[in-house]
Amino acid sequence: MSEQVHNRLAMVRAERKVSRQALAEAVGVHYQTIGYIERGQYNPSLDLALKMARFFRLPVEALFSLEPFQPLTSEIYGENGRNQ
Known about the structure:
mainly alpha, two-stranded antiparallel ribbon
C-alpha cells in the first residue's frame, strides 16, 4: 500500500476561486478525481501533481507533502500563534 500524500488543494482552490470542474478540465481528469485527492482517498500521480502545481503557479511541495501540513497560522506566526 502506498503512503498517504497530504495536500492543500482544497484550500488553494478556494483561495483562487477555482472549481473542481475547472481544475479537472485544466489538468485532464474527471472532477471527481479532484475531490478524491482533496479528501486523501486517492494519491495523484507525479504527472498529475506537477500539472496541478503548474496550473496554480506554485511549487509542487506547496500543494503536496508526505508529512501532514502544519496550520498556516503556525507556519507564519510560530507555534503559539504569535509573530516572534
